[in-house]
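Q: what does this look like with 4'-deoxy-4'-aminopyridoxal-5'-phosphate bound?
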Amino acid sequence: MKSLSKKVANAEASLTLALTAIAKKMKADGIDVVSLTAGEPDFPTPAHIKRAAVQAIEENFTKYTVNAGIIELRSAIADKLRRDNNISVDPSHILVSNGAKHSIFNALQAICNKGDEVIIPAPYWVSYPEAVKLVDAVPVILKTTERTDFKISASQLQRAITKKTKALILCSPSNPTGSVYTQSELEAIGEVVRKTGIYVIADEIYEKVIYDGARHFSLASIPTIKDLVITINGVSKAYSMTGWRIGYMAAAKPIVDAADKVQSQVTSAPCSISQRAAAAAIAGPEDEVHAMTAEFKKRRDYMLGELRAMEGVTCPTPQGAFYLFPNVSGLYGTSFNGKKIKSGDDVTQYLLEECNVVTVPGSGFGAKNNIRLSYACSMEELQKAADRMKKGFQQLK
Ligand code: PMP
Ligand code: GLU
């Protein structure tokens, strides 16, 4: 057998998806497992959205659509960007893809050349560095700490920019930390972007999952950098539509055209039925979005209280998304079955093997002292997880 692609060998498979698969397999094998892995809302997709999909099928809206996405959906997205984000774009500046993950990959394909540097603040979502590597570019990781709420500053960004820097990937509200950048923090970052001319891939997929009066601000609403910002969003999180696979980018026309070209040769347009459903979601009422977010907040508060009561665990309060990202370094030096706990990976392993609780190690997000817990699951599941974790940690010697 001839050798396979070195580039692919050099990239990791998605850790979040891998652990979700492990939890699913354990469940299928009859193990009473609690999965706090994937960031996937447990609510059903709202009824009016499902009805739009059923109607699309009944109307035989089941053929290829225009590659960039149906105009009805792109117009709904343009209206939404104007209404929610203060971004004014024509539908021709929007490309609809098979999930926001696909949109990010399309964006990187559109802008990167071999050897270009792409700055990624850590902790980062697992897929960013790997997507950068898959387009032959180089991820440059910018470390942050809990002291700055896991956020980069404008001066930190400025110092990291070299002649080779092509873009910054910024996620707010953040997966995995839940941090939300304020308007003034983003304006300062925007000023560095303006001065240096780098692109920003602004991942806003969690914009509607936000708490405690925090406000989402879109970088692309700053007029001086509008053409440098590629706004990424989708319907997976806000409308509980992970399986429908609809995401989108909004960007300057040359970027959208390049990404459109790539998509036309790789996947064509996303599913016609899902596009109709997404249009109903984005143009429709948001009551259920607010209800889901209110429920997430209850779960966050409950789990935060439980985690903070566990010895060896500290956890900041996330302002958005549906993840907790506790620091577990207080457990280092303890052991189980003669094995010493030395990292977040070890804690995740212990929880998986001894407590039947599946979490994601922080190392996959560039933070080895942390573990990630998704609270996009029922309160009962969270209670079960908290009990098991509490008991499990008490048993560590
Ligand atoms: N960005 C972030 C930060 C995410 O957590 C996810 C999770 N799925 C995505 C993008 C992609 O979402 P999707 O492909 O389902 O739209
Ligand atoms: N984004 C979610 C997560 O981080 C879903 C899985 C994935 O696509 O990575 O868990």
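The chain is about 40% helix and 15% strand. Residues 51 and 277 are 8 Å apart (CA to CA).
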